Amino acid sequence: MIETATARPLPSVPVTESPHRWRILAVAAVAQYLAILDLFAVTVAFPTLETSFGHASASTVSWVLNAYTIVMAALLVPAGRLADDTGRKRGFLVGMALFGLASVACAAAPSLGLLIAARIVQAAAAALLVPTGLGLVLPSFDSREHPTVMGIWTAIAAAGAGSGPVIGGLLLEAGWRWIFLLNVPFTVAAFIFGLRVLPDIRQQAKRRLDLFGAALILGATAALTTVFVQASAWGYTSPATIGMLVAALTLAGLFAWHVRRHPDPVVSPVVLRHKLFRIATAGVFCYYLAFAALILEGTLFLSQRWHYSQLSASLGITPIPIACLLLSPLSGRIVARIGARASATLGGLTIAVGVAWWILAAGFSTSYAVMFLPGAILAGASTALLQPPLFGASSLLPADQLSLGSGTLMMARQTSSALGVAILTAILARAAVPSLGDYRAGWVYMVLVGLLAAGAGLAYRPGTRTA
């Protein structure tokens, strides 16, 4: 039973199964894939960007990634609420058009500053696309199909993360601008197809936008994510890092105060007080602390420790998205057979076991098939097991809060990914060239947070009464 925070009934959005539901999923999946792909594809282009823009510093070039990460994480929740209030189809199509135009601007950027500015616009569009897409998809399917839908949805996200470095490396052969030009035909096709098949889901009652609350959560998330991505460059005890952390905590406190007093805040108390949704958000947060760090350390281990080329190292981690893609279509059957709680718990345990294998096998084997491949397959399988039931928690909320709930879960993913990478960077930065012991320390960290994700899965019991 969903908790209510007020006696006033919330407006609802009609939920009926659509005959075009698989087409709707296909359109939304394109947006999900491109948004995640563009987060990871640029990482392999850093050296090329440094030389292309007059030997720019690595710290300046890093903002091509950091700006995208920070802005997307900060805007996910306000964008989800905006889409719920003004119409999800309209929000999705605006986001898709803006993403395509920003991609063209990125490809045409004559200077690094303009490239970073275009990435900010691209991230804002991605923040509108991702939660809105899921807010269009889930109401179009019967609730019995939601585990399968979420399996496909999370498989697309994992494919974007895993294939990003590979596609980026391949496109670098033609030039870094092609990393962004690749988006254009897909955004055009998705926009045209979306005009025809996407349902026009709107609120039955108009609500006033909580602009002050949106500004508070935007500022708090942006400040907190900035701490994660910049702490290693600024110094963990530097005035800039501490000041940004204080700003994040202050804005978060003001937001909590605001939510308790506003009659219709940007994040409904129904979302904040729903126990199962909080547990799912914590599980997603813990999981991505491990998964984002795993993608990065896997690539670094192959390139720095085993001396693979950048492209070979990127190809070396492809078993992760492949395993996820192969298993995710079966996630609906898995959840139906063993339950959402068991599936989520098993997902957290699987990533922990996969990384534990790397810790053990690295001491006696340098064979890719023996040492690296089993852990990579288990990591991909963990995504297919854990994410569908936990991301499906947004469907436990009232229908008019679905995009907002999705945005909250995506924000947890983005913020924890940035934190996971920052923690791993601190672990590996203890030496100029990381030793096997440094890599093992990073893997131990991933095992621990994987177990925390499993603990959240164990506490996740949809169908039970929330308190």
Task: Give a topology summary.
Elements: H1 21-40, H2 46-52, H3 58-61, H4 63-86, H5 88-108, H6 112-137, H7 146-172, H8 178-181, H9 183-197, H10 211-234, H11 239-261, H12 269-273, H13 275-305, H14 310-316, H15 319-327, H16 331-338, H17 340-361, H18 368-391, H19 402-428, H20 436-459
Helix pairs in contact: 1-6, 1-7, 1-9, 4-5, 4-6, 4-10, 4-19, 5-6, 5-9, 6-19, 7-14, 7-15, 7-16, 7-18, 10-11, 10-19, 13-14, 13-17, 13-18, 13-19, 13-20, 15-18, 16-17, 16-18, 17-18, 17-20
What is the gist of this entry?
The protein folds into two domains: 21-199 and 266-459, MFS general substrate transporter like domains (Growth Hormone, Chain: A); 210-265. The chain has helices spanning 21-40, 46-52, 58-61, 63-86, 88-108, 112-137, 146-172, 178-181, 183-197, 211-234, 239-261, 269-273, 275-305, 310-316, 319-327, 331-338, 340-361, 368-391, 402-428, 436-459. It is globular and about 55 Å long.
**Secondary structure: helix percent:** over 70%
Quaternary class = single chain
Mean pLDDT across every amino acid position: 84
CATH superfamily of the largest domain: MFS general substrate transporter like domains
Q: How many beta-strand segments?
A: 0
Number of helices: 20
Count of discrete structural domains: 2
CATH topology of the largest domain: Growth Hormone, Chain: A
Radius of gyration: 21 Å
Overall geometry: globular
Poorly predicted regions are 1-15
Q: First CA to last CA: what distance?
A: 9 Å
